[in-house]
Amino acid sequence: MKNSNLKCWGLLLLLPFLTLSLFAQGPNNSGTYYKSADGLKGKALKTAMFNIIKTHKQLTNKQLWSAFKTTDKRADGKVWDMYSNATNFTFGTDQAGNYNKEGDVYNREHSFPKSWFKEATPMYTDLVHLVPTDAYVNNRRGNYPFGETKGETYKSKNGFSKLGSCTYPGYTGVVFEPNDEYKGDFARIYFYMATAYEDKITGWSQSAILQKDSYQPYKDWQQKMLMEWSEKDAVSQKEIDRNAGIYSWQNNRNPFVDYPGLEEYIWGSKKDVPFSYDHYQTPTSVTFITVDTKSIGSDDWYNMNGQKVGKSKPSHKGVYIHKGKKVVVE
Fold first, then answer.
1. In contact, 228 and 275? CB cutoff 8 Å
2. pLDDT above 90 covers what percent of the chain?
């Protein structure tokens, strides 16, 4: 036991001499994309993210159909529909056209309704908030805001999506509620819209959810709800893959997917904590544990978000995954 402790201390003494360049990269192969936001917090962090993601390659309407094949394809090759779990659309074959009921065709859904920004560019074809959905359910949603409801007006098959009076405190108008499975996805899309269009969003019109504040453009009830949705429905591999696909098409990313819980660093409980682009810590409580030093080796190391941080033991304090075990670096 004594020798094991000595080995552990020997490793710790060497840590300050490890080169930081091994870890100077963001998650999900983003490299130094977010580097200019490093060390910032709160409002300044949001503006830094705005400057990073605001410029993207503007796609045409026609290109969107092709892009969906990269960003929204299920494992079986079918269209990944986030408004209905009863569809089985084939790309191209079931694209647009006439419809009478759920399951007929899919179309392009502006999850952030286009009427709110008067169909202006570049928002109109921004792939981040455009998703392929069942045309009939999409039509029932219309341009109602997202919210929570009992669905007394409409429910899609299996009660997957709902339309009705808002039951979330702060608003009583009609809202559209996506399924719990995708609430986090849409919340992070809305955080992206608030950030990527920081210079435009205060000029958009949607009195139910928007306010004239470029830092927090969503009214309190909507902001709180979206924060809750994002926390309860964590970033999935689907979103990570979609984010990579979007980058391949329009050359920008959604930082709220790359950094789960980033909204807490901008508007929430971590807004006074500096952001680290290459040593990011998800704002959740983590149980610290100790393991036998024999588990420390030269294989890849990952942070608690599952993001690879390097091949050598990290020099930054925290909890990591190494050889299938949690390891505390102190």
1. no
2. 77
